[in-house]
Amino acid sequence: MGLSRVRAVFFDLDNTLIDTAGASRRGMLEVIKLLQSKYHYKEEAEIICDKVQVKLSKECFHPYNTCITDLRTSHWEEAIQETKGGAANRELAEECYFLWKSTRLQHMTLAEDVKAMLTELRKEVRLLLLTNGDRQTQREKIEACACQSYFDAVVVGGEQREEKPAPSIFYYCCNLLGVQPGDCVMVGDTLETDIQGGLNAGLKATVWINKNGIVPLKSSPVPHYIVSSVLELPALLQSIDCKVSMSA
């Protein structure tokens, strides 16, 4: 790590600043209720939602080939057909998808303590939101959680040539803020994108948020620091800057 103070912090969005996984679970519960009460599905309702969850986790999205609404409606359509048999039911798939999506967005909020932390940090360093994913999906989340005003810049991977962990998107972020990679810290919950990307780009430090105490694979990228909550970040940044002062 270089001998300059931290000048900028890049934050991941999903499951770092907002509880995307929790919001998605709330959405799935609403769909289960719908399928059971309105369509009289029994245990099939949960099976369908489990299948969709698997499809979402394996999703490969190419913006040039399809729109995210079509792709995700198809996940529901396939899951319903795989579980229930019979003809495809696009209408029901759309109803499920839009209920899941709207419920999910309603529960994507920035906690008050996270807002306070970002406000305080921004007095000392520049803040940038760096999120992978489809442009429409990520912009809807950013709007839902009303986080844009807490950052000096927002970069969505789906709007760029390459996403995390490619170094190019990190260099683009540095240029936006007028800083060098060695001035910046990347904070995120995903080793393969957030941490690997920060390492690839030669950032000053990477901070992995490991809420659930996961033991990483031996082959996983190794972060400079591990915290269990994003709220531990201000103290950590202070200690990084103290090390710089002592070295100087």
TrEMBL record:
Its EC number is 3.1.3.29. InterPro entries: HAD-like_hydrolase (IPR051400), HAD-like_sf (IPR036412), HAD-SF_hydro_IA (IPR006439), HAD-SF_hydro_IA_CTE7 (IPR011950), HAD_sf (IPR023214). The gene is NANP. GO terms for biological process: N-acetylneuraminate biosynthetic process. The lineage of its organism: Eukaryota, Metazoa, Chordata, Craniata, Vertebrata. This is N-acylneuraminate-9-phosphatase. It catalyses: N-acetylneuraminate 9-phosphate + H2O = N-acetylneuraminate + phosphate; N-glycoloylneuraminate 9-phosphate + H2O = N-glycoloylneuraminate + phosphate. Pathway: Amino-sugar metabolism; N-acetylneuraminate biosynthesis. It comes from the Eukaryota. GO terms for molecular function: N-acylneuraminate-9-phosphatase activity. The keyword Hydrolase applies. The keyword Magnesium applies. It is an enzyme of class 3 (hydrolase). Its cofactor is Mg(2+). Belongs to the HAD-like hydrolase superfamily. NANP family. Keywords: Carbohydrate metabolism, Hydrolase, Magnesium. SUPFAM superfamilies: HAD-like.
